Amino acid sequence: MAVLDPSPQNKADMVISIANQKGGVGKTTTAINLAAALALRNKRTLLIDLDPQANSTMSYLDMTTVERSVYDVLTDRTLALADVIQPASQPNLWVAPSRIALAKLEARLVGEIDAHYKLKDLLAAVQADYDAVVIDCPPALGLLTVNALVASTHLLIPIQSSYFALEGTDDLLETIEKVRSRANPNLRILGVVITMHDRRTALARDIRNQIDKVFGDKVFRTVITKSVRLEESPAYKESIFKFAPDSSGATEYYRLCEEVMDRV
């Protein structure tokens, strides 16, 4: 299972997709808290929610205020991404919201020649307004995830510390290589972050060793441990840094952000 990267590019833009086709691996938790950590580092950060479940959106916005979503701008050429972006309560952080309608996108865009480039084209119009963009992808390798990969400079892969941790990873890496070969040759794998890790169990330690063997130096040193606080914070529409600033989750996601900045 080789992980091949092109040479690093000297690009100021940082567009990071958070993707894994497996559900329940801490993808949205990573997206919302990495975006928040970047904002705390005084980076003007845009969080794009491409998951029809809209969990990233609900973590920061009141859904009753979301009149238009990413679905609308992806399907209506008269709308721009700026038309749906809303500020989060945290300084330096904005959200491009999702709604369940995104689940219909693939059927809506079938046959369109530029379907895979929709998000990239929309993002180009606003990208200069932000220092960093974080994209929360759905747990699938369909059109939405491909749109994210085509628009991104980097990919971050969360992998849950569980028995089936590496299941489906080959499919994700194959999709990445296909995107690189045609639509986005500069896409880089930023790294793999181990999530929901329980340091107390021998199984979790064995799984971490397995992930290290497969991905090598692509695995972030920071490991995100299991945390009730991380599970609770979205219900209060707050990042872990505001909800529980002294928690292990806050410390770990801030360290992850530092590693991300170093690698970019």
List keywords for this structure.
about 260 residues, alpha/beta, Rossmann fold, disordered N terminus
How do the helices and strands line up, and which of them pair or pack?
Elements: E1 15-18, H1 27-40, E2 45-49, H2 55-60, H3 70-75, E3 86-87, E4 93-96, H4 105-109, H5 118-124, E5 132-136, H6 143-151, E6 154-160, H7 169-181, E7 188-195, H8 202-215, H9 228-232, H10 240-243, H11 248-263
Parallel strand pairs: 1-5, 1-6, 2-4, 2-5, 6-7
Antiparallel strand pairs: 3-4
Helix pairs in contact: 1-11, 5-6
Describe this structure in words.
The chain is of the alpha/beta class. The protein has a domain at 15-189: Rossmann fold (3-Layer(aba) Sandwich), CATH 3.40.50.300. It is built from 11 helices and 7 strands. Helix 1 (27-40) crosses helix 11 (248-263) and helix 5 (118-124) runs parallel beside helix 6 (143-151). The longest helix is centred in the last third of the chain and has 16 residues, at 248-263.
Report the structural category. alpha/beta
What is the CATH topology classification name of one domain? Rossmann fold
Number of helices, counting only DSSP H or I runs of 4 residues or more: 11
Radius of gyration: 17 Å
Work out the helicity level: 25-40%
CATH superfamily of one domain: P-loop containing nucleotide triphosphate hydrolases
Judging by the overall fold, what is the CATH architecture of one domain?
3-Layer(aba) Sandwich
What general outline do the C-alpha atoms trace? globular
What gap, in angstroms, lies between the N and C termini? 24 Å
Strand content: 5-15%
Number of DSSP E strands: 7
Question: What integer is the average pLDDT?
Answer: 91
* SSE run: EHEHHEEHHEHEHEHHHH
Main β-sheet description = 7 strands, mixed
Q: Strand order, biggest sheet?
A: 3-4-2-5-1-6-7
Low-confidence stretches: 1-12
Q: Name the CATH class of one domain.
A: Alpha Beta
